[in-house]
Amino acid sequence: MPVAVITGASRGLGAALAHALEARGWDLVVDARDADALAAATVGTRATVVAGDVTDPVHRRALTDAAARLGGAEVVVNNASTLGASPMPTVADLSHDVLDDVLLTNVVAPHALTRALLPQLLEHAGTVLNISSDAAVEPYEGWGAYGASKAALDHLTRILGAEQPTLHVYAVDPGDMRTRMHQDAFPGEDISDRPEPATVVPHLLALLDRRPPSGRYRASDVEVSDGVPA
What we know:
By secondary structure, the chain is an alpha/beta fold. It has one domain: NAD(P)-binding Rossmann-like Domain (Rossmann fold, 3-Layer(aba) Sandwich). Helices cover about 40% and strands about 15% of the residues. The chain has a 7-stranded parallel sheet with strand order 3-2-1-4-5-6-7, sandwiched between helices. The longest helix is centred in the middle third of the chain and has 28 residues. It starts with a strand and ends in a 12-residue tail after the last strand.
């Protein structure tokens, strides 16, 4: 069975995608910092649960080793990320500590995990799926740290795709979703009009199935075929 490593799989898009791949028969290695939430979200039997912080090199080695024991990762989904401070500060008020933490979590850690998994991914002509945001390309007030981190992740993604033509390397903007992170971005506001993360999953599955050229995609632009459940 194919193997996927998914970070940030305790809730939101990571959990929804993990459930969908497991239903397809994939073996999974899943992580999140909250061990209890990760255990609660992992309802199937095909997931190897490795709780921890993806910024920790020891934890990343545990994820890599777990994937190797299953036969090697065919897909890595770098979904774990942090918004930074909430309420989000302007660039003028953005502290170095917050910016450092956001860049470490959203850029350095995904790069390091992908690099560690690269031999496995190359063996399987695999796929790197980095979860991006429209904040990577639009200058929203208050989104300086998060937007800068996703812009950097986008560019690393495109360069990796150019350097590794046998891989399929994607940065995907999932669009607004009803998630804890999105709620933290708008504290006290009602975000119930945002779609559930599960609505994005068919588009990600279609991307994994179709494997178009490496690059940046909006999930909504990836057409869902009849073979991909909505």
